# Entry
Amino acid sequence: MAALCFEIRPGSYYDSVILMQLQRALAELPGVLDAGVVMGTPANHELLLASGLYPSGATAARPDDLLIVIQAEDEEAGQRALAQVDRQLQRRRTTIQNAFQPRSLDSALKQMPQATWVLVSVPGRYAAGVAREALAQGRHLFLYSDNVALEDEIALKQEAAEKGLLVMGPDCGTAIIQGIGLGFANRVRRGAIGLVGASGTGLQAITSRIHNLGGGVSQAIGTGGRDLRAAVGGLTAGAAIDLLGRDPETRVIVLVSKPPAAEVATRLLATAMTTGKPTVIYFQGYAPPGRRINNLHFARNLTEAARMAVDLSREEIALQDDPAAKKRQGPYVRGLFSGGTLAYEAVLGLQAVLHPLYTNVPVRPEQRLPDANQRQGPVHRSGHTILDLGADEFTQGRLHPMIDPDLRLRRMKQEALAADVGLILLDVVLGEGAHPDPAGALASTIQQVTREENIAVVALVVGTDDDPQNRPGQIDQLHAAGAMVFTDTGDMVAYIARHWATAATATVSPPVSLAALQAPFAAVNIGLATFADSLAAQGAEVVSLDWRPPAGGDEKLMALLAKMKN
Amino acid sequence: MAALCFEIRPGSYYDSVILMQLQRALAELPGVLDAGVVMGTPANHELLLASGLYPSGATAARPDDLLIVIQAEDEEAGQRALAQVDRQLQRRRTTIQNAFQPRSLDSALKQMPQATWVLVSVPGRYAAGVAREALAQGRHLFLYSDNVALEDEIALKQEAAEKGLLVMGPDCGTAIIQGIGLGFANRVRRGAIGLVGASGTGLQAITSRIHNLGGGVSQAIGTGGRDLRAAVGGLTAGAAIDLLGRDPETRVIVLVSKPPAAEVATRLLATAMTTGKPTVIYFQGYAPPGRRINNLHFARNLTEAARMAVDLSREEIALQDDPAAKKRQGPYVRGLFSGGTLAYEAVLGLQAVLHPLYTNVPVRPEQRLPDANQRQGPVHRSGHTILDLGADEFTQGRLHPMIDPDLRLRRMKQEALAADVGLILLDVVLGEGAHPDPAGALASTIQQVTREENIAVVALVVGTDDDPQNRPGQIDQLHAAGAMVFTDTGDMVAYIARHWATAATATVSPPVSLAALQAPFAAVNIGLATFADSLAAQGAEVVSLDWRPPAGGDEKLMALLAKMKN
# Structure
């Protein structure tokens, strides 16, 4: 009759590779049906339970405890297997420690001073400490470890920024530096496309596809999945985009990320615009602000991001001739729309480049103006405003602004008097049912605002040449009154982005040195041995640390040691 | 010295066009500097205040009151202007009522029995009543009026659905039926593109652009901005897509809307898939699930939606050869991913066609699995599940699933035992650092699941031919084990959409008759006279009702009359 035997080894550290190998070795022993060798985390308890490997005593195992469960043909076979555990562990350890390995980062760097990179894949609770040591030694970091506290990530990245160092991660699965894949990485040819990714398999999928389409990769820089959160502020992504902007090998940039915080997205897009290089943006799950804004191209999925990058890398890049910005009174944009969908489309596009932005047709809840009659955001924060003047609250007891221009004219004059307004944005919708001469109705106020108040006016004209208002004549009237005229929301957004975009990420000071990408890749590996094997197989220089948790993993002793250091 | 004079006329109804004309006429009188003529809504109070047209006594005007304010050179000129109000109102009324106009819908329909459409643009609080009358007469509705209660909209649309009638609106600004523009509409050539729009200026922008690109429009059907909310359920949009699917003139469909409720989006996309016609989807502000899913093409802005529609209308349409769905055990999909970004990409794509969907990498908050070890959604709702097994909660004290397949294999076996699972979805990520033979590690379990449990397995392979695992060999192994293999998330989503998509909108019963789109356009107009003028100018048959609010706009009397009717 089948038996479940188990053992709990409290509070000691084992490399995950060793646990996997131990589990396999135990499962293969005679009389053993199945085996589970895991740390006692909640997820692992659930898994053992679901696998029928959960004797009642196993509940006692805590996250820091090693839990070994054997399902055997009988009690005797199970106990025989458990008795093998020490010998198996011993054997694994000796096969791994066949080469001389330094025991400290210091001695590793003495052995290989040209190692400008340190790879860290130790368990999360030790990772920040190891990473701090590497930064203290002036090394760039590839931090594979997950389960690292957010505060530690922020502190590490701020320290790195002050020193001009890159911190990829924590929870960074993938990077390609100088043709060498770090962590999980596909073998791809070198080329002109540089990538920045807050998503590991995203980078893998795009770099693979680039290769499969015949393109190549200059560098692929991972940031870790939390880098684009507001609390971290995209510190690594911003530094990486800036670095690729200066890298002569990189002609096209790709930025891929899970949905970023809105203000982080806006700043990174501004940074990408200042590089002037064609940049493919794929913010997964984020509604793209259009097909393109100047040098920024927006993809709808991983495959498309790769294809766009390859296509762009084959084009001759003509840098945009950028007309000088109109002299302007204030920094903010005011959109006064008659069409609700046009207002929403403007919010969707402009939110990528203007921050903060408030509106009565919000794409994101925090954009909502509490009262559309107000000029500012919640708690009176200054910002850009887009209003749909055809919304229900404006059309009670009043004609729609597409027929009656009165509300728009009054509001334009009001906005023009505010010192913080630099641009007024209008839509002019032609066609059946609308005002017979909307440009004429707006012209004298546009003229007054542009000439007397020195405010730029941008008009978006929607209509056909068959419309009763005479479209070319309407456009001429708007031009004559001093407005910039667009017939495409994308072109309009691109123009506003060039002249009114929120400032780019504050320049990283000092910037990350290009040398990080130009020396042959050399690294110290701390953690998973398979990563060092992979680097060596790719021809990179690597030295592995024989890393052990401080104080043998004893948390109390660790805390005591940390106190004594300070 | 300038003076502000004003008058409040309590509780009587005026057409908005008349108010606009009165304001202009008063402003042109000698000695008058500015004038405001508005109903006393909060927005209008704000506007008058901002325009310096707000004497202290004006605060007394309520939303149902007419408020007239005159800013004049002196008190005398102001009073003179106020004294003109009655004469001006009288003059406006007589110029408008120059033709014979029926006083009831009944008599209007006797005068023009071929009018299958009724246009309603009376003030919101009267609109539902007028619309109900039109439905009772078996007429399709174009309901321009805004400020209509949501419950009224739902009731009207449900009644219409039972009768096979279309209700465009409330707050529907635009439509083009049989080449005739209703409400606000641009003059565009006729052609093969049929549109459904929950956004007015969105339809205008796209139809204009289609025309400017040389394309043409068969029909453009507005739905009103709230149609795609969960409460309304896309009743009009669903009926309209179904109608265009049957319309022989329509070869390409465009669906444009502000962000729809998730479950409504899923059902409308399913309806669009069943039409088999190429359909361009532009859900503004909604992250597109990819570039394309079968016949559904996703646009990033209004301009692109138009361009895609025109391009598609010029292509020869080859209907997809759809392989028979694999026989399957249950209706639900289980994704077991090792790559977080790949899992997220699957959620992003599949959420467009699978509902409900739960995951530990949610795109929308309601998708979040409270506990990733669970198989079902909040409060144990059955549904599709996508898991990222590389997430932090699974990798504590355990190797990443890209290296150690154990967790995935156990979970696959578990899921295969559930009666409600029909498909298991896996990613297989190749490259440096990953398992040396992931397909080999998965193969025997895939074989067991597909052959013994009769469950379909779909594998997404990411990698290059240079990767150490030998990509073609990995794909061969997966095929041999019985898996469908894809190398592109888009193709994978398209396959799953064909065979596992959530059911389309329940067939409208009875469907809207094609005759609605095929007879020459004829309508009764109730409300804004400018709309009737525009219809007549376009050569459509139209009869205008001389509409007055019931009981002269007296709300108490109206309520009494309504009671007596019932």
Notes: Chain B touches chain A through 113 residues (CB under 8 Å). Residues 406 and 441 of chain B are 9 Å apart (CA to CA). Residues 319-325 of chain B have pLDDT under 50 and may be disordered.
